């Protein structure tokens, strides 16, 4: 048969995708997003290369930078591994932001307005943070399992509800007496503050919790019957039903765990970083965490690594804001760009593209 | 077509295939699943480009690079899965298929009505696609190609979605078409079909031509089977002996609704005894699906009761039914039977992960792997590895996986819904043999099937289901025509406009 002239592009489904190919494609898609964001830097009259170097060295280039990256990774990572679990069951929780806020509110109540013994305060703060976040996630989960209400919309809307509760509290009943009208509570007593690693802002209790939970979730997903049920529900809920799995139970479970982890992230922010509850306690960590969950392919370990990476970019972004006078939102743009390229790249893990030109064929 | 070769990344689908069709004949392209029938026709229709080989149409060498070019050469194809827009009308779908050729609607309407009359393809042009039966949708697909003036019409397994009655109508239309000089290529793995309506037969096996252009009167069924399969069949189900076991499953006047809330199963009662195969015959859509789902815990029973060994299990959860030893081969294997992006081994343990493969809260992965490998071997499932996602397996192998899994439960009761639909002859025989063996070992089987031959070959007793009711019961040796009559009696084709 004759060969057609010109360019022919064809897609063929990959029969199997090796781990190395998958990882290569993911790395490549991140690298390919760099030139595009470079254009944005250029618009501000900044050399893109200079900006990249500043961003990466800001987040990863020094001991101080790395320690700040870890501080950011604590809330982002906690939210992300929780979200990854829910996404594994194809329950699209967009509400980590609100669940985090509810966790921070619960911890604040324990720190400032309760009479627990002082030496138990911190464990109770973590516990109540978990419960508050879990409860906040339980509501959309219950609506989904009983009335089949879309969880994306409910979790998203509940973020705004929790944001308003926070703003009401810090400008109203909980506003600190000695805060000159700032929308924040009084500082926590020292027994309600998380100790920091010397010379850094890393509240290591939260770090230990994050690492332990990452490991636990890894085991849960890969080695337990419940993890198997979660994967089954995520892949085909009908088949899960047919296999005798209670789909509702799984939905409630992943949402409660997912929300609980976001709640713990909230505890870390008030008790570790700020030492008080304030307006804007989370600069969107719950939303940012969606990115590493997918970047990590919903695997807890990979999600933790991706959280570290994204957190580094955020820290680097703060840096260029100061040193190059660029708006910090450029970093959000950067993050968004990476996610878009990443999702596009995922397509290539499922299909291979052949380009034919003048009888020659190139496989991608 | 001469010397056609088509290679896919891991297999050679066509290995030097020659194929010839004459004007004015119905030509069967016969072969088992995966023999390369569809691939060969997709090459002819311009969907695949062959790696080697030539195509001639009316003696002229042509290069076909797209379906568009195929249509221009007068070659049309009706796929197994229809390409229609549900929410548009028949007429609108036909206009869409014209790809920008502008013809006034009224002109189109006139010409289609002409085709309909000429070939006996009745259709209401203003009906929306979703309102039509599958048979009618197929007619729309055929009309689409006729409208493009095709000389060669390829039909890919056209009867697999049709009721026997609809198939008959289709065959009549096809005969009319060849009389007016068109050629028809019928891709099929059904022997009887090929023998009944085709003028000549070409057999493909594993990407090679085994026999070409056998005239219908020269062919015998047995020859064809051995050519398709490559070996003669060794399994003939023995005449079922009468089972007189105790009652295992007792269904008492149950009522079940369908998805739209209409009564699908009306006041159905029957018993299933130990060591028997009870066949449920009937045309699809007469409540069989709802009955099976109700008996396996997937659908609510509104009225009546179901007992297993005297224990009431009406509306028991699926989990409970599984633990009582009820296995289920579902009719819609992709909807219920498997999770496509999970691995073969993950799919293999769907029914037993709680009972057989759990150590406290953990999954015993070593045992899972061992069991999966054993079942893959026992059931001759073709898969690169136990970790391959099931979505990469062929339909036949997915069905084998489901059968293997359900039987690995050592079920007391197996509820099998069309267990061999879409399987090739060898796999069908294998499944029949397995069902037979299961019965011999004392389990009971409720065999719900649209394939009357299958029911007749295997069942000890046969119930006929029609319009949600069990209308008659037959003994195992009953004649097919009696049962067929009971299945279709009072079934009147809905009138077409």
Description of the structure:
The complex is a heterodimer of chains A (364) and B (497). Chain A has 364 residues and is mainly alpha-helical. Chain A has a domain at 65-296. Helix content of chain A is 69%, strand content 5%. Chain A contains 14 helices and 3 strands. Chain A has helices at residues 19-43, 48-60, 63-88, 96-113, 121-147, 151-171, 204-223, 225-235, 237-242, 247-274, 285-288, 290-295, 300-323, 329-350, and strands at residues 7-13, 351-357, 360-363. In chain A, strands 1-2-3 form a 3-stranded antiparallel beta sheet. In chain A, strand 2 and strand 3 (360-363) form a beta hairpin. In chain A, helix 2 crosses helix 3. Chain A is globular. By secondary structure, chain B is an alpha/beta fold. Chain B folds into 2 domains: 2-229, Rossmann fold (3-Layer(aba) Sandwich), CATH 3.40.50; 247-488, P-loop containing nucleotide triphosphate hydrolases (Rossmann fold, 3-Layer(aba) Sandwich), CATH 3.40.50.300. Helices cover 33% and strands 25% of the residues of chain B. Chain B contains 17 helices and 22 strands. A 6-stranded mixed beta sheet of chain B has the order 6-7-8-3-9-10, with helices on both faces. A 6-stranded mixed beta sheet of chain B has the order 16-19-20-13-21-22, sandwiched between helices. A 4-stranded antiparallel beta sheet of chain B has the order 2-1-4-5, covered by helices on one side. The model of chain B is unreliable at 490-497 (pLDDT under 50). Chains A and B meet through helix 8 and helix 9 of A and strand 4, helix 10, helix 11 and strand 18 of B.
Total strands of chain A: the figure is 3
> Quick one: CATH class of the largest domain in chain B?
Alpha Beta
Mean pLDDT of chain A: 89
Which residues of chain A form runs of ≥5 with pLDDT under 50?
none
Specify the structural class of chain B: alpha/beta
Major sheet: arrangement of strands of chain A? 1-2-3
Helix percentage of chain A: 55-70%
CATH architecture of the largest domain in chain B: 3-Layer(aba) Sandwich
Give the amount of beta strand of chain B, in percent.
Answer: 15-25%
Q: State the total count of DSSP E strands of chain B.
A: 22
Biggest interchain interface, per-side counts: A-B, 25 and 43 residues
Number of helices of chain B: 17
């Amino acid at each position: 048969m004759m060969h057609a002239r010109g360019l022919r592009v064809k897609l063929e489904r990959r029969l199997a995708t090796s781990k190395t190919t998958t990882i290569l494609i993911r790395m490549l898609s991140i690298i390919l997003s760099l030139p595009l964001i470079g254009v944005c830097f250029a618009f501000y009259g900044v050399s893109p290369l200079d900006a990249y170097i500043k961003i990466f060295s800001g987040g990863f280039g020094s001991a101080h930078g790395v320690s700040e990256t870890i501080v950011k990774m604590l809330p982002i990572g906690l939210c992300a591994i929780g979200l990854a679990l829910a996404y594994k069951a194809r329950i699209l929780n967009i509400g980590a932001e609100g669940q985090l806020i509810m966790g921070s509110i619960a911890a604040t109540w324990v720190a400032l307005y309760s009479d627990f013994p002082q030496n138990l305060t911190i464990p109770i703060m973590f516990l109540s943070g978990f419960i508050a976040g879990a409860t906040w996630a339980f509501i959309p989960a219950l609506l989904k399992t009983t009335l089949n209400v879309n969880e994306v919309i409910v979790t998203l809307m509940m973020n705004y509800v929790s944001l308003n509760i926070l703003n009401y509290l810090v400008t109203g009943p909980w506003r600190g007496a000695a805060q000159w009208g700032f929308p924040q509570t009084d500082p926590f007593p020292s027994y309600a503050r998380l100790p920091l690693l010397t010379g850094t802002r890393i509240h290591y209790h939260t770090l230990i919790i994050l690492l332990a939970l990452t490991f636990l979730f890894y085991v849960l997903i890969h080695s337990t019957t419940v993890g198997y049920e979660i994967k089954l529900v995520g892949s085909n809920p009908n088949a899960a039903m047919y296999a005798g799995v209670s789909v509702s139970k799984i939905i409630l479970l992943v949402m409660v765990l997912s929300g609980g982890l976001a709640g713990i992230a909230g505890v870390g922010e008030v008790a570790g970083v700020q030492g008080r509850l304030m307006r804007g306690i989370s600069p969107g960590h719950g939303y940012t965490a969606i990115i590493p969950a997918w970047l990590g392919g919903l695997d807890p370990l990979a999600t933790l690594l991706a959280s570290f990476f994204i957190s580094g970019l955020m820290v680097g972004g703060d840096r260029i804001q100061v040193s190059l006078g660029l708006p910090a939102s450029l970093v959000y743009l950067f993050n968004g760009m990476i996610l878009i390229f990443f999702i596009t790249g995922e397509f290539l893990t499922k299909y291979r593209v052949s380009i034919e030109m003048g009888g020659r064929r190139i496989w991608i | 077509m001469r010397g056609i070769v088509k290679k896919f990344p891991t297999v050679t689908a066509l290995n030097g295939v020659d194929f010839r069709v004459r004007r004015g004949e119905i030509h069967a392209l016969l072969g088992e699943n995966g023999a390369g029938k569809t691939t060969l026709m997709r090459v002819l229709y311009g969907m695949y480009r062959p790696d080697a080989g030539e195509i001639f149409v009316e003696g002229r060498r042509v290069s076909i690079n797209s379906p568009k070019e195929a249509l221009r050469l007068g070659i049309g194809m009706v796929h197994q899965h229809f390409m229609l827009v549900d929410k548009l009308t028949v007429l609108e779908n036909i206009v869409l298929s014209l790809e920008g050729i502008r013809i006034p609607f009224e002109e189109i309407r006139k010409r289609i009505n002409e085709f309909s009359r000429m070939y006996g393809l009745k259709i209401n042009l203003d009906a929306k696609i979703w309102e039509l039966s599958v048979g009618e949708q197929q007619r729309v697909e055929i009309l689409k190609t006729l409208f493009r003036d095709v000389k060669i019409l390829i039909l890919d397994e056209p009867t697999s979605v049709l009721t026997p009655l609809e198939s008959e109508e289709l065959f009549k239309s096809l005969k009319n078409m060849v009389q007016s000089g068109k050629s028809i290529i019928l891709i099929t793995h059904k022997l009887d079909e090929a023998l009944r309506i085709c003028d000549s037969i070409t057999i493909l096996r594993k990407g090679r031509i085994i026999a070409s252009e056998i005239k219908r009167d020269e062919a015998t069924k047995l020859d064809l089977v051995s050519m398709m399969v490559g070996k003669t069949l060794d399994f003939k189900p023995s005449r079922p002996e009468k089972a007189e076991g105790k009652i295992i499953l007792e269904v008492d006047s149950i009522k079940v609704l369908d998805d739209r809330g209409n009564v699908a199963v009306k006041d159905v009662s029957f018993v299933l005894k130990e060591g028997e195969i009870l066949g449920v015959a009937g045309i699809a859509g007469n409540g069989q699906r709802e009955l099976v789902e109700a008996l396996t815990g997937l659908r609510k029973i509104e009225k009546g009761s179901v007992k297993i060994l005297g224990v009431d299990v009406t509306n028991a959860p699926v989990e409970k039914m599984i633990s009582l030893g009820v296995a289920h081969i579902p009719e819609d294997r992709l909807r219920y039977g498997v999770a496509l992006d999970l691995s073969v081994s993950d799919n293999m343990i769907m029914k037993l992960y709680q009972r057989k493969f759990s150590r406290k809260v953990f999954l015993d992965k070593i045992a899972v792997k061992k069991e999966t490998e054993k079942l893959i071997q026992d059931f001759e499932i073709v898969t690169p590895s136990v970790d391959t996602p099931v979505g990469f397996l062929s339909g036949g192998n997915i069905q084998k996986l489901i059968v293997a899994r359900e039987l690995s439960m050592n079920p007391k009761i197996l509820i099998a819904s069309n267990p061999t639909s879409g399987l090739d002859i060898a796999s069908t025989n294998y499944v029949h043999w397995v069902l037979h063996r299961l019965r011999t070992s004392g389990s009971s089987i409720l065999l719900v099937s649209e394939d009357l031959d299958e029911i007749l070959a295997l069942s000890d007793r046969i119930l006929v289901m029609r319009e949600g009711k069990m209308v008659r019961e037959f003994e195992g040796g009953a004649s097919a025509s009696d049962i067929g009559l009971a299945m279709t009696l009072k079934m009147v084709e809905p009138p077409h406009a």
